[in-house]
Design a protein that fits this description.
The chain has 114 residues and is α+β, with helices and mostly antiparallel strands. The chain has two helices and five strands, in the order E-E-H-E-E-H-E.
């Protein structure tokens, strides 16, 4: 289980799985076309934590990921996002701790227009 304090990292794994979810499915889907960095950015937003691409993969990819969101109230079975990444894309998350850039705003003031 990945804890919030740990930083998940996408790394390569052997084999790619088949896509899940069909028409009429209530699974969430994420689609990304382009470099893997675009998919990694999407994963960071969905997981609400940093994801670092350590795959070494270059080029452009069409990625479609079907998963059951953690807060889903549906009884429909489906893989977690972590399972879906492994089974459908052949990637895995590895939790690591490391430095992360953050921005701290001490104060803010409205700019007065002349």
């Amino acid at each position: 289980m990945v804890q919030r304090k740990a930083r998940p990292v996408a790394t390569t794994s052997a084999g790619a799985g088949q896509a899940a979810g069909g028409s009429g499915s209530r699974l969430a889907t994420m689609q990304s076309t382009g470099p893997l960095s675009r998919f990694v950015e999407s994963m960071s937003r969905v997981l609400d934590r940093p994801v670092i691409d350590m795959t070494g993969l270059t080029g452009r990819y069409n990625i479609r990921l079907a998963y059951k969101p953690e807060n889903s109230s549906s009884d429909e079975p489906g893989p977690s996002i972590f399972t879906a990444v492994t089974e459908q894309l052949g990637l895995r998350f590895e939790a690591r701790k490391g430095p992360v850039e953050i921005v701290i705003i001490d104060s803010i003031e409205r700019v007065r227009e002349p």
